[in-house]
Amino acid sequence: MPPKVVAVAAGEAHTLALTGDGEVYSWGRGMFGRLGTGREADEHVPTAVAPVVAVGGRPRPRFVAVASGAYHSLALDDLGSPETLQAEAQNSSTQSSLKLSSVKAGGMMSFAIDNLGALWMWGNVPQQSDAGEFCIAASSVPLPVWDFHGHTVVKVACGNEHVVAAVSAGETYTGGDLVCYAWGNNNHGQLGLGDKESRSRPVLISAFSEGSSWEVYEIACGAWHTAVLTNKKSFDVDLESRCWTFGLGDNGQLGHGTTATICSPQPVDGLPTGSFLISLDCGLFHTTVVSSDGEVWCWGMERGLGLCPEASFSGVDSGDALRPIRVQSPETNGFKFLGPVQVTCGAAHTVLVAGDGYRMWAWGRGRSGVLGRNQTADSYIPCVVMWPPLDENFQEIHEDRAQASTSGVNDQNSAELEQKLSAASEELQFLRSKLTLMERYANILHISIFRKPLDERTLPRSLQESHVFDIRKEFENILDTADTDELNRLEIFYRSMLSGVKDKLLKRRVQEMVQECIVSLSSGRQNP
Asked: Once rounded to an integer, what is the mean pLDDT over residues 459-485?
């Protein structure tokens, strides 16, 4: 099967893709070794990174996360595998150190969150000078951010010189209780604190505090602006998500219809209200969001992104998109990309993972091959990234075809190679479409039952134990572990679901099954 992309990250002019089997691929500008291929040459198509395997028998890394700064890249190795832990134990007699759970990068700084929820930073990071004033200072070693002691850092994002963190309101993260802190350079109001005073230490953003009616679930930073996705705090079945932006607005990257700089969070109008926003990222001077039904919206810098093709670039018409513009999908001839997963933004390019992880689209500036389509030309509409990478068989066919076409002496062999490649491509496309259909069906079914997407890394307990998905047992597990708020949500969801069942026999059976689960739990036993 082709490798499935589970995460992407974009830097100034390069892109990283992480696959489900722990491999990392990179493409774009190679200067400073940011691609991890062992050289500084540009790569015009996704190319596997070449990790250095340490001496002493340490196994090849299995990566679980990636991040990109302007000119550097990060990849997090999974040190929890039995082989790695065994090798670690043989090479060290000391106690096991902290493990990192996620990484993030931006500008010329890097961040990591460990398994205890603590935040670490290094590079050119915001610090406090000896005189107690704000400064940007370089650190070649990770520094802990002590301000969050007693809380759990869940997400972090950073721009050129500012940082935003989503942190648990209490000591531990229980879901839906995140608040936002910001610190760093604030010369454009990108901290969202209502002023332009820089901060050397994290300060709570009041719009996203514990008392706010909105709860944060995603954050992103551009060079000098910030974007936040939130849910409405309510027990409604239909979740209402909203995008907020603040900071520099010179290129319309805030999406408020002006080029004004804004120092406090304001919601972006013009985004879909009937669907859930699942992904968000900021480029140098642009912003992109993706909805659950596959719509992609961009706003901000025109030059290099082609958001406003009719722009005159004369007088007051800079061509920038001051409000969200819906991106057209070439695969549907409409505005919906099939199976959207994640979006990432570079300085002047955007990459979308769709097809439930088996297809990538890119648009914007194409310099250094950053669009991953074996060209350096710009593309103002989404183009297909060359994914999956050519395996050995396809590579041989590709090379043979190139050799035959170059020599021009064996047209028959060239035709046969073309037919062979075409047949293999059709078979691969057929299998990929079948797998995508099955994954989408499983995900829709899981959401309809449990109100959350199916995550292959956290499979339901019954499926892990017996390889059979026991819906009744999973429902009992949910009821047994739910708190009061979750039980209220479940009740509302159950009543709404039941009202939509038209078949009387099916409705009665659903009621009986739920009642049996409740009786089973109240009596302290599990029904087979």
From this structure: 66
